[in-house]
Amino acid sequence: KVSGQVEVFSWWTAGGEAEGLQAMIDIFEEKYPDVEFINATVAGGAGFEAKPVLISRLTGGDPPDSFQVHAGHELIDTWGVGDYLEPVNFIFEEEGWYDVYPEDIISILSMGDDILSVPVNIHRSNVLWYNKAVFEDNGIEAPTTFDEFFAAADALEAAGITPLALGDTGIWAAVHLFENVLLGVVGSDDYIGLMDGSVRWDSDEVKEAIQIFVDLLDHVNDDHSALGWDEAAQYVIDGTAACTVMGDWAHGYFMAKGLTPGVEYGYVPSPGTSGIFMALSDTFCLPADAPT
């Protein structure tokens, strides 16, 4: 019989995120009814507010029992290199996950032979979400290219509608938008090359992507720096803005607000990225000095 308590640290507080976390908590509490689950959340998209708190706790010797971290460089460069984590290879072995997870996913969870965290999702981050009524009322199709977007933006602004909702009170949302633009211009192979150093950052294509990003910022809401990503998504729901570029976690937000995909809102790959899946994974890891 397992008893005691377990503290799990995350930043899942927005609509869709909170429901997803609660669903996992419900499963845990059903399986371990004598264990108190301490839900240690800190609000702020992508952990913008949570990460400084987490750094303070781990470096101060007060780690939670587990915490949320993005797979890839955030996981490896921040926590893997500092010996803050226990490898979780044993969980993969016990659960048979080596036969389930693709090697590419395991590679972004690992440092050497050590797997450092367990994914709980695989998000697609290159998605444009739009208000179907706004688009239909203005005779606009969902843009698949940047030229199409800018043409739509002119028509929307003429109708008094903000073309693109952005909420970058946490600067990550602006970075996320730029990542989408960069992928849409250079393509998947060169995008990977930029990340691994085989493609130069001073190429004409990168310069083009930067200019497109700057031009996009001319078509966002004036209060973008005061909003979170979910508040920007709410602008799309309200029809104040026509669309937003955000990962597929926005789908959970829209559904948590009672909307139905294909009815009130639609979605397409962000401009230029059709056929490409930009992956992002939320994972949970095991601190080396976890109390439980």
Automatic annotation (TrEMBL):
<protein>
    <recommendedName>
        <fullName>ABC transporter substrate-binding protein</fullName>
    </recommendedName>
</protein>
<keyword id="KW-0732">Signal</keyword>
<keyword id="KW-0813">Transport</keyword>
<dbReference type="Pfam" id="PF01547">
    <property type="entry name" value="SBP_bac_1"/>
</dbReference>
<dbReference type="InterPro" id="IPR050490">
    <property type="entry name" value="Bact_solute-bd_prot1"/>
</dbReference>
<dbReference type="GO" id="GO:0030313">
    <property type="term" value="C:cell envelope"/>
</dbReference>
<comment type="similarity">
    <text>Belongs to the bacterial solute-binding protein 1 family.</text>
</comment>
<dbReference type="InterPro" id="IPR006059">
    <property type="entry name" value="SBP"/>
</dbReference>
